[in-house]
Protein: Non-specific lipid-transfer protein 2-like
Amino acid sequence: MVKVMSVSVLALAAAILLVTVAKIPVAEGVTCSPMELTPCAAAMTSSSPPSQACCAKLREQKPCLCGYLRNPSLRQYINSPNARKVTSSCQIATPNC
Structure:
């Protein structure tokens, strides 16, 4: 039951991101798309630790985080307690936007 619920939450979060987000331009070489953070979805929606792939994507997407925080549709995910735990576990400083 819990696994089905967490899969449903993950699917809902992915659907919301797909529907509400356009690519956000930043520094050359980085494509800001929240879908790039898919490897972090499980860690951000549960208490599971982030994978190495998640931490690598967070480092890659770090220049995009302020743009995600400014987006009302994404802010709640990027600024959630679990997301902060993930960035802390990956040793990525929370940006001051």
